[in-house]
Amino acid sequence: MEVIRLRGLAVSPGIGLGEAILSERVVFTSRRETISDQQVADELKRLRRAFERTKEELQKLKGYIEKQMGKDQAFIFDAHLMILEDPMLIPNLEKVIREEKVKAEWAITTVNNHFASLFESLSDEYFQQRKADISDVLARVYRHLERKKERKEDLDKPVILVAHELLPSEAAIYLSQEKVMGVVLDMGGMTSHTAILARSLGIPAVVGLHDASLKVKAGDFIIVDGTDGEVIINPPPAIKREFNSKKERYENYQKELKKIASLKSQTLDKVQFKPLANIELPEEVETAFSFGAEGVGLFRSEFIYLQRPTLPSEEDHLAIYRQMAKRTYPRPVYIRTIDIGGEKSLPWLNIEKEPNPALGLRAIRFSLKNRELFRTQVRAILKASERHNVRLMVPMITELEEVMELKRVVEEVKDELRRTGTAFDESMPIGVMIEVPAAAVLIESIIQEVDYVSIGTNDLIQYYLAVDRGNEAVSYLFKPHHPAVLELLAHVIKTVNKFDKEVAVCGEMAADPLSAIILLGLGLRNFSMNPIFIPRVKKALREVETSTAEEAVKQALKLKTATEIEEFMIEAIIRKHPQAFFLSRFGSSGRGNQSRP
User: Fold this and answer.
1) Confidence check: pLDDT of 7 > 50
2) Which of 39, 111, 404, 515 could share a disulfide with 509, CB 3.0–4.6 Å?
3) Mean pLDDT of 53-70
4) Considering 317, 481, 506, 577, which one is annotated as catalytic?
5) Which domains does the chain have, with CATH numbers?
């Protein structure tokens, strides 16, 4: 057999070995079948029955997954039930049937293609991944037009699941089976449901392989390296032995990390720090805590807009925020208000095309221009704050006027709730994200108007160095340890600490052990990141003295290049604390995928 080695995106670390099983790809019809005027009524009834059957199936699947994997992993079916029950979905499908005089299959295909093209036109990978939820629901309705049932294989030996693409519910059903040792997908990204679910279950996964499903045959032996992003098809015995050994080392590493997750978050000289989690979906909360998170430092509220084909209501927001508050209690949860706009636009938000969307109408700019939408979200967050563990966080502040305006909106909403006797946390902390260099320079004025700040280093560095980190031609210039970047971070952290208020970093720097030690030396104590990276960062910070980091950083800031700073810091830390970077090499799937804020 020919040995094939493929490279993809590592989204769930670990080593998996087993025989390949192939998942069938969902295919919508390409045939536009017309009907007569007299057949329209029957076709509409057929569509309605399919929706009823789909609802019954989703409820059954939810119960099955709850029994197999727990309530947290069954959340996807709640999300799909919300999509199914969206008041605009059936009317849109019925409109196609009535106006075009076509069968329901073509109506579903038309609507699916419409949403797929809309989501694929967005440049943000997280947004693109959400199209799978609507396709998933429509695929189920499509199958139930002819009463086709869910197919689930019972596996009796270790297997590697190979597919072009897995819909979210398919991922939940397949990955609930103990014999699935790894996942290989042509499509997908770091924020896809399959990736999130695989990470939470500890199943190695590599995605973004383009045509792996065409190169694999059922029964082929597969090795999945979810740490380095490699997939090997039909390896010889020597390579199998090599990866079995690597698998054993990784499992030992995981045992070490489990021990670290439950240890105190403090440095060798007893300085306390707080690891927090950046999460996309509510079902990630318990997994984050299992990795040692002491709260949710960034909950991206955009998914609420992406789980349905129309704008979410206040009740939709409130249900999710209350769930988050309950799941995290008594730990804090920082809810970021909508960070949509520019390159992250959605059609039902009516945002005009912009020539330079990254610098355009987005985040707080979009919210202040769409007051009612913003007030709806703020009102829901306030209503969910009864447990006193909810924080409001607003992204992409540029000037003090924006801070004053958002505070005015919050006060107006509070007054409304007081008049109606609605309970909420009167002292709910309000904070802003420092992602624009201008806000970093103005930090002394800003911090006096808010309760805390969170530094989004990904965007801050991108804007400060004028580097598009997604552009391969210039991405080499994206340097977190650039002297100018560290000086700017030092200014923000020092200023906030002077006012005895809270400052966190929620970008990729927080997830990298070397960067975390540098940030510690700059005075940072709150680190928010993708949960899977918490143990290795916690390990690194527990193995150093804060005084060592502070003195090393003080000397490093005198150096002139990022390379010099990195080399100096590594040498200075290892000289005194040789265990600080031990094991960190197993925890990363590449710096570019660690924790997009």
Assistant:
1) yes
2) 515
3) 84
4) 506
5) 4-22+153-251 (3.50.30.10), 37-144 (1.10.274.10), 262-275+441-450+459-597 (3.20.20.60), 295-428 (3.20.20.60)
Give dist(CA 585, CA 596) in Å, integer.
20
Q: How does DSSP classify residue 280?
A: S
Most confident by average pLDDT, 234-238, 250-254, 356-360: 234-238
Q: Which residue has the tokens 């020092």?
A: 494
* Average of per-residue pLDDT across 383-409: 97
The distance of Cα 377 from the centroid of its chain, to the nearest Å, equals 20
Catalytic residue among 193, 317, 481, 577: 193
What is the side-by-side order of every strand in the sheet holding 15-22? 4-7, 230-233, 221-225, 15-22, 159-163, 180-185, 205-207, 9-12
Cα–Cα separations (whole angstroms), residue 249 to 14, 15, 245, 257, 586: 10, 10, 6, 12, 9
Question: What does the alpha-carbon distance between residue 61 and residue 77 come to, in Å, rounded to a whole number?
Answer: 7
* CA distances (Å), origin 285, targets 68, 75, 280, 291, 433: 18, 12, 9, 10, 22
193 classed as catalytic = yes
Question: Alpha carbon of 589 to those of 45, 432, 507, 514, 532: distances in Å?
Answer: 49, 29, 15, 16, 10
Give 161 or 507, the one with higher predicted confidence. 161
Count the neighbouring beta carbons within 10 Å of the beta carbon of residue 244.
Answer: 12
The reported pTM is 0.72
What digits encode the pLDDT tens for the residues 320-358? Answer: 999 999 999 999 999 999 987 555 555 556 666 666 767
pLDDT(118) > 70? no
Nearest to 515 by CA among 528, 502, 503: 528
Tell me the C-alpha distance between 572 and 575, whole Å: 5
How far does CA 202 lie from the centroid of its chain? 16
Task: Retrieve residue 306's tokens.
Answer: 């992406």
pLDDT reading at 435 higher than 80: yes
Please report the pLDDT score of residue 347 as a whole number.
55
